[in-house]
């Protein structure tokens, strides 16, 4: 990989020297075919700060308004040893070792192209190479910041002109887009996301970078964005805290800024150093299963629409309210002293005895959904590539998810059974008042107690109770799924791993390391592959020697 990057860098350098910059050419150019990384974002979103941070040098001009007014093509070159230095394409051979002078030259050469007006832009790129033992071989392009309106002194076309410059870089399929969005603005207004979505709608070559996390309003956090729930990309989002303007003014150096950034994330209650950033794909996958984006959630609807209604149907209340049963319950309720004036005292007993049987199917539905969620979670975890590499973390992750699901299930059982208890605890008397019935045979309390044990009377009671129980059962048939969806499905989507993340956040570095121990087979495979690569490289060198000696 490193060899490949070095090769691409060398090719880009050759293009630059030979004047092939890709722009304004009707012929296909080598430059366009080479991979590059473009830094895109709204004005003052933090693009230059991110680049400064990657390079580890304070070398880009800063200030208010449009600061980056020409594309800056930045080649980073790793050297084995020696002092850091920079070289401009327009001053080939002149080594800049003073990075303040580099910053000044970027400003001056921008002015030379656009005129002294700080409000104009140009599409002609500046080429800058930086050499350092601390760098990796990469080519990055800093682009003018996207803006929404032209300000005083700027041509009306400036908004479109900047978009055109940016688009000309990022529309190339070989361009990786580093899309910079500030966390203190709504992501829906992010220019970086708007432009990257236009050219890379599936987010396959866009890396989302969230700056200014330290400037977010109190009470808000960046979790939804960093976990890809606000805008999903194929690669994880990266959160950063760059130097503030005050830091720049007081010359806080890059090392101190980086330490402060680490400290910020280490002390942020919801962030964990690395762990939380590794996990979102699995978490997203669980949420997608539950949302029906991936298969699995239809099994939950099957419980609600088919299994629960069928189980309630099977209860057969008519059988429970047969005349023999009604007589038995009434006789038991009367005891040695038959009720003289309050036959309605039997009703709660009769109703409760029927409704209590609903608890069976209700509990079964809670259990069934719990099992489905457990399967979905296991499936999502096993599909998560990053977790395959770390068996201990995967194990802990899985245990935490199951434990959390079990707590939700237990809680859900209580709430669902309480729904049934509530129905038993209070009867809607109005329902009975409105029932079309023969008052003389049924609920008339003044009726002689001797008539009350007659079959016709008991039939009437059974029929009244059956109507009522059927009505309640229909209500519960609707409210039980709601209770299950609320307490298990939505709760799992919302907070399945919250407890786990908090626990993870409390762990020390060493404890985290034990979680990230790799699968021994995988380590062995990597060692074998590295050996094989070494062998191939040696073989390639041999072949080259033979070829050259011909
Ligand atoms: N507090 C804080 N300030 C930041 C952060 N990132 C950038 N800034 C500040 O935001 C301002 C703009 O940052 P730049 O990096 O110049 O932004 P830019 O996108 O390159 O700006 P243009 O090139 O003008 O479009 C500067 O004052 C930075 O110090 C951050 O993460 N936290």
UniProtKB/TrEMBL annotation:
<dbReference type="GO" id="GO:0016020">
    <property type="term" value="C:membrane"/>
</dbReference>
<dbReference type="GO" id="GO:0005874">
    <property type="term" value="C:microtubule"/>
</dbReference>
<dbReference type="InterPro" id="IPR022812">
    <property type="entry name" value="Dynamin"/>
</dbReference>
<dbReference type="Pfam" id="PF02212">
    <property type="entry name" value="GED"/>
</dbReference>
<feature type="domain" description="GED">
    <location>
        <begin position="458"/>
        <end position="550"/>
    </location>
</feature>
<dbReference type="InterPro" id="IPR003130">
    <property type="entry name" value="GED"/>
</dbReference>
<dbReference type="InterPro" id="IPR001401">
    <property type="entry name" value="Dynamin_GTPase"/>
</dbReference>
<dbReference type="GO" id="GO:0003924">
    <property type="term" value="F:GTPase activity"/>
</dbReference>
<dbReference type="InterPro" id="IPR000375">
    <property type="entry name" value="Dynamin_stalk"/>
</dbReference>
<keyword id="KW-0505">Motor protein</keyword>
<dbReference type="InterPro" id="IPR019762">
    <property type="entry name" value="Dynamin_GTPase_CS"/>
</dbReference>
<dbReference type="InterPro" id="IPR020850">
    <property type="entry name" value="GED_dom"/>
</dbReference>
<dbReference type="Pfam" id="PF01031">
    <property type="entry name" value="Dynamin_M"/>
</dbReference>
<keyword id="KW-0342">GTP-binding</keyword>
<dbReference type="Pfam" id="PF00350">
    <property type="entry name" value="Dynamin_N"/>
</dbReference>
<feature type="domain" description="Dynamin-type G">
    <location>
        <begin position="31"/>
        <end position="313"/>
    </location>
</feature>
<keyword id="KW-0547">Nucleotide-binding</keyword>
<comment type="similarity">
    <text>Belongs to the TRAFAC class dynamin-like GTPase superfamily. Dynamin/Fzo/YdjA family.</text>
</comment>
<dbReference type="InterPro" id="IPR027417">
    <property type="entry name" value="P-loop_NTPase"/>
</dbReference>
<dbReference type="InterPro" id="IPR045063">
    <property type="entry name" value="Dynamin_N"/>
</dbReference>
<dbReference type="GO" id="GO:0008017">
    <property type="term" value="F:microtubule binding"/>
</dbReference>
<protein>
    <submittedName>
        <fullName>OLC1v1012911C1</fullName>
    </submittedName>
</protein>
<dbReference type="GO" id="GO:0005525">
    <property type="term" value="F:GTP binding"/>
</dbReference>
<dbReference type="InterPro" id="IPR030381">
    <property type="entry name" value="G_DYNAMIN_dom"/>
</dbReference>
<dbReference type="GO" id="GO:0005737">
    <property type="term" value="C:cytoplasm"/>
</dbReference>
């Amino acid at each position: 990989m490193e060899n490949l990057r070095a090769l691409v860098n060398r090719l880009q350098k050759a293009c630059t020297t030979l004047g092939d910059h890709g722009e304004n050419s009707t012929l296909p150019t080598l430059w366009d075919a080479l991979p590059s990384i473009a830094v895109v974002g709204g004005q003052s979103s933090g693009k230059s700060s991110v680049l400064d941070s990657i390079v580890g040098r304070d070398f880009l001009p800063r200030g208010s308004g449009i600061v980056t007014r020409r594309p800056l093509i930045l080649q980073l070159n790793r050297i084995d040893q020696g002092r850091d230095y920079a070289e401009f394409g327009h001053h080939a051979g002149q080594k800049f070792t003073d990075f303040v002078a580099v910053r000044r030259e970027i400003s001056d050469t921008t002015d030379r192209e656009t005129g002294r007006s700080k409000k104009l832009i140009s599409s002609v790129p500046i080429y800058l190479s930086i050499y350092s033992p601390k760098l990796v071989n990469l080519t990055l392009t800093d682009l003018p910041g996207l803006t929404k309106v032209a300000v005083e002194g700027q041509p009306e076309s400036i908004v479109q002109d900047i978009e055109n410059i940016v688009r000309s870089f990022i529309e190339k399929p070989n361009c990786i887009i580093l899309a910079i969005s500030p966390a203190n603005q709504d992501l829906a207004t992010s220019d970086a996301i708007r432009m990257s979505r236009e050219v890379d709608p599936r987010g396959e070559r866009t890396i989302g970078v969230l700056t200014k996390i330290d400037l977010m309003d109190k009470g808000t956090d960046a979790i939804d964005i960093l976990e890809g729930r606000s805008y999903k990309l194929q690669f994880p989002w990266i959160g950063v805290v760059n130097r503030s303007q005050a830091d720049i003014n007081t010359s806080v150096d890059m090392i101190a800024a980086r330490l402060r950034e680490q400290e910020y994330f280490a002390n942020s209650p919801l962030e964990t150093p690395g762990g939380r950033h590794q996990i979102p794909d699995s978490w997203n996958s669980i949420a997608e299963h539950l949302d029906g984006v991936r298969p699995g959630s239809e099994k939950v609807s099957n419980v609600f629409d088919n299994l629960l209604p069928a189980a309630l149907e099977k209860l057969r209340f008519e059988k429970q309210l047969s005349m023999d049963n009604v007589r038995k319950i009434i006789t038991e309720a009367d005891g040695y002293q038959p009720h003289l004036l309050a036959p309605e005292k039997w009703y709660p007993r009769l109703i409760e005895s029927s409704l209590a049987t609903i608890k069976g199917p209700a509990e079964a539905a809670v259990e069934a959904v719990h099992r489905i969620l457990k399967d979905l979670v296991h499936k999502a975890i096993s599909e998560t590539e990053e977790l395959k590499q770390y068996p201990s973390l995967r194990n802990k992750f899985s245990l935490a998810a199951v434990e959390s699901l079990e707590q939700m299930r237990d809680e859900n059982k209580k709430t669902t059974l309480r729904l049934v208890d509530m129905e038993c605890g209070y009867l809607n008397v109005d329902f009975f008042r409105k029932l079309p019935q023969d008052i003389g045979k049924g609920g008339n309390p003044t009726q002689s107690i001797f008539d009350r044990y007659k079959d016709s009377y008991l039939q009437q009671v059974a029929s009244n109770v059956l109507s009522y129980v059927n009505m309640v059962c229909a209500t519960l048939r609707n409210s039980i799924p709601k209770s299950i969806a609320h307490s298990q499905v939505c709760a799992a989507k919302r907070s399945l791993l919250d407890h786990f993340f908090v626990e993870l956040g409390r762990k020390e570095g060493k404890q985290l390391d034990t979680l990230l121990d790799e699968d021994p087979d995988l380590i062995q495979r990597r060692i074998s592959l590295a050996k094989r690569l070494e062998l191939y490289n040696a073989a390639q060198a041999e072949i080259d020697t033979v070829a050259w000696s011909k």
